[in-house]
Specification:
With 93 residues, this protein is α+β, with helices and mostly antiparallel strands. It has 2 helices and 3 strands; from the N terminus they run αββαβ. A 3-stranded mixed beta sheet has the order 1-2-3. Strand 2 (50-56), helix 2 (64-80) and strand 3 form a beta-alpha-beta unit.
Length: 93
């Protein structure tokens, strides 16, 4: 999947993945029992920006309408969050 920095538009590479941050977010997601989401954090070496990508996948048996509603709810929640230096990007998969 092609991901790029939301600030400078530099394409991210595998080296830019913030592995420890991503593992921590995934551990929290699993502990909360959240399904159909995958979190990945990247750090841009060019501009110093941080981005969090949320891959949203349909749940087994979930209708297209329910998936769209879940995505809209997630997008509203993300807009209400204030990340200190990270942008959050939701990607349907």
């Amino acid at each position: 999947m092609h991901r790029e920095c939301t600030q400078c538009r530099r394409p991210f590479t595998a080296r830019d993945l913030a592995r420890e941050v991503s593992r921590g977010m995934e551990a929290e997601r699993k502990a909360l029992g959240l399904q159909g989401l995958l979190f990945r954090s990247y750090h841009c070496p060019q501009c110093g920006g941080d981005d969090i990508f949320v891959d949203l996948r349909p749940l087994p048996g979930e209708s297209e309408a329910d998936f769209r509603a879940r995505r809209a709810d997630l997008e509203r929640t993300v807009k209400d969050l204030h990340a200190e230096r990270a942008e959050v990007v939701i990607t349907p998969r």
